[in-house]
Design a protein that fits this description.
Number of strands: 0
Helix content: over 70%
Radius of gyration: 17 Å
Keywords: Membrane, Transmembrane, Transmembrane helix
Number of domains: 1
Order of helices and strands: HHHHHHHHHHH
Number of helices: 11
Organism: Methylobacterium pseudosasicola
Protein name: Permeases of the major facilitator superfamily
């Protein structure tokens, strides 16, 4: 099965699961799950299998740079959402992604470790700017979502996946890596949360996505260091495990905060 065919089947399933988790446990958990490398990891695996391990390892550097652009996109939304309407704040966030991507990848090219040093404090700042609701698990009275809600989410996420999958193989390792961490699942989740549940819910998604980005960063750094030094299966297994290990503690931290 080709990557595009796999993503047509996989992306709606992941989007449905994350959306269902968001409805069941709140927007913060949905954002945290959407921040995992649910789509970027398959792209990296595809690059390793089709273009070679060295190509995928170099693409990981571009992905770390791209993750900085994604984080600055979240930062722009966190700053604009409380002060602007939904369309304006979403456009500002996407503009921040494009501009920071051009600067970080096209002009500065900071490399793996400098990009990591930029990403970590930026992600921490996004988390700080999106404080948790007093009780995110408290039941909310919400109107039942319209019938078109879930199909629209699935279509939006799948369309973005197909766009990235179609462009990445032709752009080289740097630009392919830059496209890989685009938050294909979290962007639609943020938009739908904003339009349906307001600013607070969308900021919960952003916070969870920024927390999940620590795991994405760990995944790409590990991939760059391991590919070519160990077999492909081991490299990706260790990288995915490390990514999960960086994300899961956020759930326990949240529970301790609520318990206190």
């Amino acid at each position: 099965m080709s990557l595009i065919a796999a993503k047509i089947a996989l992306t709606p399933t992941l989007m449905w699961a994350v959306s269902a988790a968001s409805r069941r446990w709140g927007s913060l958990v949905g954002g945290l799950l959407s921040g995992l490398p649910l789509t970027s990891a398959p792209i990296s695996i595809y690059l390793a299998l089709e273009q070679g391990e060295s190509f995928a390892a170099e693409a990981a550097i571009g992905s770390v740079e791209g993750l900085g652009a994604v984080t600055l996109c979240y930062l722009a939304y966190a700053l604009c959402a409380p002060r602007m309407g939904p369309v304006a704040s979403l456009c500002a966030a996407l503009s921040a992604f494009v501009l920071s991507g051009i600067v970080l990848h096209g002009l500065v090219r900071p490399g793996l470790w400098l990009a990591t040093a930029i990403d970590v404090p930026a992600m921490a700042l996004v988390v700080a700017l999106c404080p948790r609701a007093a009780d995110p698990d408290a039941p909310r009275r919400r109107p039942r979502p319209p019938r078109w809600d879930m199909p629209a989410r699935l279509a939006a996420a799948t369309a973005l996946v197909l766009m990235v999958s179609g462009l990445a193989p032709t752009l080289g390792s740097g630009l392919s890596g830059l496209l890989a961490p685009i938050p294909i699942i979290s962007w639609p989740l943020i938009a739908f949360a904003r339009f349906q549940d307001g600013v607070r819910a969308s900021l919960d998604v952003v916070r969870g996505s920024a927390q999940g980005a620590f795991g994405v960063l760990a995944f790409y750094v590990c991939i760059h260091l391991l590919l070519g030094r160990t077999d492909t299966i081991t490299a990706y297994a260790v990288s995915i495990a490390l990514s999960a290990a960086c994300v899961l503690p956020w759930l326990f931290v949240g529970r301790r905060v609520r318990a206190g």
